[in-house]
Predict the structure.
Amino acid sequence: MNIFRINIIIVVMAALMAWAMPGALAEDISVEATVTANRINLGNSAQLVLTVHGTQKADPISLPAIDGFDTRYIGPQTQVSIVNGNYNSTKSFIYSLFPNKTGQFKIPSLSITVDDREFQTQPIDMTVEDAAAPASGASGAPGDLASSLKDKIMLIMGTSKNEAYIGEQVPLTVKLLYAGVTISEIQFPSFESVGFTKTDFAQPQQSQQVINGVGFNIVDFRTFVSPTRTGALTLGPAKIEANLVYRSAQNTTFGTGTFANDLFDNFFNTYEKRVLTATSQPLALNVLPLPEEGKPDDFSGAVGQFDFTVTASPSEVKVGDPITLRMKITGNGNLKAITFPSFNDQKFKTYDPQIKDEGNTKVLEQVIIPTSERIKEIPALHFSYFDTQEKKYKTIRQGPFTVSVKAPAPGEEFKAVGFEATSPKITVKEELGQDLVFIKERPGILRPMHYHVYKRVWFWLILSIYLVAWSGVLVWYFIRRRLKTDERFARRFKAPRQAREGIAQAEVFKVQGQVKEFYGAVIKTLKDYLGNQLHVPSGGMTSASIEPLLRSRQVDEKIIASIRSIFETADMVRFASIRPEDANMDKTFENLKVIIDDLERHL
Amino acid sequence: VNRRLINSIFLCLLVCAGCQDARKAEVETFNKANAAYKQGEYKGAIELYKKIIAHGLTSQQLQYNLGNAYMKDGQLGRAITAYERALRLQPRESDLKANLAFAKNRIESPEPQGPKSLFPHLQMITLDEIVMILAMIGVGITVLILVGLFSQWRFRKTAFFITVLGVVFAFHIFALLAKIDDLRDRAVVVATGEVRYEPEENATAHFTAYEGWKVRVLKESGGWIKVERPDGLQGWMPSDRLEKI
């Protein structure tokens, strides 16, 4: 296809569009509400479609509360078509309808504003039937008890007792019951347990049970809780999250007969999941303190019903041979929190015990080593606990255990070095309570909101002072080093200071009227200054030798003339013994100051 | 001149005394709030703690107690906000960390996790502490330069020490930037609700933000705030469902 043909097609299409557009502009706006199915089962979902014909400029509305349904906005759908030159555009807003009880319901007239005009939809009748009783008739028998999701999904939390002792292990069950709905991905329950320690839930057991003629599926979660404080405590409410599976009902061309429902509905329908949170009632538990009366001294917090046995083997050993002491506690109670009686006997060397949890049994194994052949028995051990059935303390005594300890043979003296390495310490995970740590009694240092060090002036001031000082030290260091290594720099550096000293000296001689000394000081100051600045020897310096150097540095001729004049006057006074007028001394002095000042700026 | 000096000193003392009186009043309010808390009047305690904050003052202990009062009053999101504010002032306080963990355990749905931080130690220090560490390292480098010059160290020796300190300095500069990024534009969800694709009530829901989640504020527009979860999901939610830290 060549470019010419393509251009023709584009032009024709544009003409068609131009012809169609007036039709579009003239198109009437209308609104309608439809549902994908008017009759659905509890457990199925339907879709409500709110369609605006004739424009794309429409926004979704918030659905009012609809009796019998929970709703969720899914999203918009747009459609544009040109049929026989007619331009049609529609915009649909799709909502999911999740029935929450059975019965006859009505989706009310919905109001939507499009292009500043308000439109109303027609009400829609809906029937929700109980999926568990499909044979109840198409129209639903009048007087039938309506069922709701709350009747079909229940969460029950329970204990075998409503009163317990602190530290007692209380069995707790959380049962999820559901009937006539499909539930998937059931999470383990969670519940508030402030004031309790709790163990992890065991794998749930599933069963079925008929309650009031309805077959319920039951998921049974079991755990134990143990109160850590006394008083009226509350457990729960328990919560379980699961996905409630709705079948999205569609109107099919196969009617609503059994055949259609069973075969084609399964084929055409899709499934939709909705997160469901089932919540139980909270559970009150009155927690009693343990009685003080009759509490044994060695009681360490064991609450429940227990048996305590101890064995020691072998019973015939030599000094230094190990004896294994095995303590075993079995029974119902807070085994994890129980501590074994400690074996402390100075006649035995003891090693760290190994403790194992095995269901309702807790075992301690400890190696003890007799240190003397005079030992005849291992002392008795006591275990005390509070019996929650008989409501009193009990103590089980085991031992003493007779042992025969013989003296070691020569060369087999008692050694136990390195034994620890073969006895790894096993620690038992401690169950701790959880609650808020109490408030603070003092407010601490109250600072302005958003206070930060780097926003404070003092911080930057201190930093700036430090940086200035640091820079000063650095500059001083480098000047000092150059003075030592660079003679030209050192002479130039000291020239002004020496000149100031010379001028001061000359001024003293001038005031005292010492003419020769004055001119001597003047000529020395000038020679030293020029010598330092120009880095030449100042000893044999004359006006004639210095002038070319000054001219090469572009020094003003007036200054050079002044320097020459000072040299001549000084020579006359010093060598021809001519005494100049005082006015000339003043003039020479001023000239000297002007020369040095000027050369400071030019050299 | 002396009289002016005396007057100035007297004025300064008067201002300082005024400041002390103001702080004393705040301490009294704090004690009253604590008393209300102990009597179980948590709403009253919250109002009193907030009164001190309204005067522009704060402290780790104040925010911690406010967080406790919110927890007792059942306002999980605001409690976590107060604990997070306290954490910015003193991140190593064990009671505070315990209560924040306790509060976060009560969030209805676990907070989404983002990528792990390159600077995990940042959680243990405040912004001010990083600034002070940087200042100290800076001073250390400059002092080292002077010591090297005056002690006539070999250039390699001075360069080695300065390079080591320079690397530590650069690391803390990055840490400072990361900390600033970690603290900036953070907010806590105070009411569970849908986060939507557009800033409109009828827009399609993207995900649910649960009370107590910490999110980053990206943009604000007409009563709506665009937020980002730690795992990168973004959306709009009404501004009254968030409280900035």
Residues 18-26, 134-145, 251-267 of chain A have pLDDT under 50 and may be disordered. The interface with chain B takes residues 59-62, 73-75, 192, 434-449, 452-454, 459, 463, 466-467, 470, 473-474, 477 of chain A (CB under 8 Å). The radius of gyration of chain A is 53 Å. Chain A is about 25% helix and 35% strand.
